[in-house]
Amino acid sequence: MEDAEENSMFETSHVLGALLASSPLLARAWDRCAAAAAMGAASSGFAHGDGGGDGGTVYVAFSGLQAALSVARPAVASGADVFAPVGLGGDAAGARAFPQLAAAEPDAAAAGERVAVQALALRCFLKLCGSPEFQMLLNQIRGKAVVFTGHSLGGAIAALAALHYLCISSLSSSCSPSPVLCVTFGSPLLGNEALSRAILRERWGGNFCNVVSQHDVVPRLLFCPLDAVPVHVIIGMQLQQWPGHTHHTGVMTTRVVDAEQEGLRQLIQAHVRTVAMEQKLVDPESRGGSPYRPFGAYVLCSPEGAACVDNSTAAVQMLYATFAACYTRGDTTSLEAAHSCYGDLVLKMPQNLLLKRHLHAMDVLASMSNSNYDAGISLAMEASGIGSEATEATTARYWLKASKRAGRSPSLNCAGLSTRLGRITPCRAQIEWYKASFDADMGYYDAFKQQRSPKKFGKANIYRLKLGQFWDGVLTMLDNSQLPHDFHRRAKWVNAARFYQLLVEPLDIADYHRNNLHKTRGGYITHGRDRRYELFDKWWKEKGAFSGTSTGDTSVTATARSKYAGLTQDPCFWARVEEAWDQTESAQAEHDVAMLAMKLGRLREFERYARELVESKEVSIDVLAPQSSYTRWVEEWKKLLLRDEARTASLF
């Protein structure tokens, strides 16, 4: 059955690569990279401008020249010093620049690894980030479509700039998120596996596109043990591309001799092969390997075209297969030429797509009797520079298929989830019925907390748990990149999650307080709330940012309601009511005047907030039920105010 399904599919690695190669995106990004490099060592380190017909898209390119000079001047020789991984949480400036990634470290640490990036790129970016020119640039591009780009070390800096921009954009509530893409050319690896996981968790993997030539050693260099990385090679290749800029800096550059080139190729091939064979990166502590791991999409290009993979494991495999294929052929392209070839590649690839695909596509298709899918795999291999006779052809074919399945399965999984959502909807309907049965008495929150009508309670509790399991499963799939990268922005799923949250979270709050967990763990909002609800809040907020409407959980909407909401629009409303009850009881027993005034002040804030929600009809009718916790609290609050007024009058 699986084979039949696969044979019915078209292979997309070649199609995506061809689409990208034939678009003006890569050529415009490379032109901006060349402009940044031409500005020299005395410049700000980046250049920006529009894309010339991209409808307002801004291209921001970063030069790696200053990074190379910073290493070349002190003549540092150890790759372990220059490219050592630096934890973002351990660096105050890094934590400020990348708050979401640094905040991901507790989870990563529990798994034995912290989010880290290479020291050279981080140091250069943080220096750049603190400059007035860069801060001015961020203000200028806010709200616009942006392409960050860079070549070699500049690509690593561009990736950090894109991550920084994504971080600050997602935290900002003043502007709608704008399209962001990072295109790197021949960039060294940037971060470890924890960084890759954090990027996937934030759904940013689709924002990164790494263009890699089949001959280029730089994107593959950091798979080697860091103490074996020849720093002078990567720095020298960076400087030799623009010798005019190094002439005035006192930095001498020398070409890599043939014997050294051969040794470096063998070193890289051996270690990338080790990583590829093990299907994981070598543990740096147990095997002395590299901690770095790829993330984002990889466009593996040759003069024949390009193939695109967006699965990190498949990217490692293809980085090995493409490099080994040209090495096996005895290719004598120099390291410098291979690293500086991207300008020619982005010009030649569209021409070859028109000429060679027209000449050879029919031959390839005719030779494949099984399916269009197999023909597409052959085209992808040819485009990435792997001939059918190459030793690595079988491995490459397997991983292109794996990448295809990984790329297609998120959409299939999403379709499957839609079916499962339909099946789980009756559980939601049963809780809605449970809610309606108590609206006129005490409301479903208090009924569930007090276990009124045990039979109804038992069924509602089962449905609550089933719905929670479903949505936890959805988030697990998201964490494992098994759903589309924009899943959390799709209106159907954002709205479904929001409705579930508003309906069911009050029952979770009731369960938390019924079991007195607020006394042993602390308040629900701070210590008891499930991660799913925090994520759903974030999705809802981002939906409001995209649509330009207010979706704040605790704010009154601009449009007045004519009747009470079907569900209370603050999912934590009942937790706030419980906190108000605790504070009221504490205030009733308080004898210290100053402490009493402080507690009454907090209660007045809640009373004002709740009153605004009720007046704007942002609450469900069950909140105002005669025996609801809120109605009874209002009566208790009035008594407390009268008591305080009497106490104050007695003082005079």
From TrEMBL:
InterPro entries: AB_hydrolase_fold (IPR029058), EDS1_EP (IPR041266), Fungal_lipase-type (IPR002921). Residues 132-224 form the Fungal lipase-type domain. One of its GO terms (cellular component) is nucleus. Its main location: cytoplasm. It is found in: Cytoplasm; Nucleus. It comes from the Eukaryota. Keywords: Cytoplasm, Nucleus, Plant defense. One of its GO terms (molecular function) is dihydrolipoyllysine-residue succinyltransferase activity. Residues 429-642 form the EDS1 EP domain. GO terms for biological process: defense response; lipid metabolic process; tricarboxylic acid cycle. PANTHER family: LIPASE-LIKE PAD4. This is Fungal lipase-like domain-containing protein. It comes from Triticum aestivum. The gene is LOC123096295.
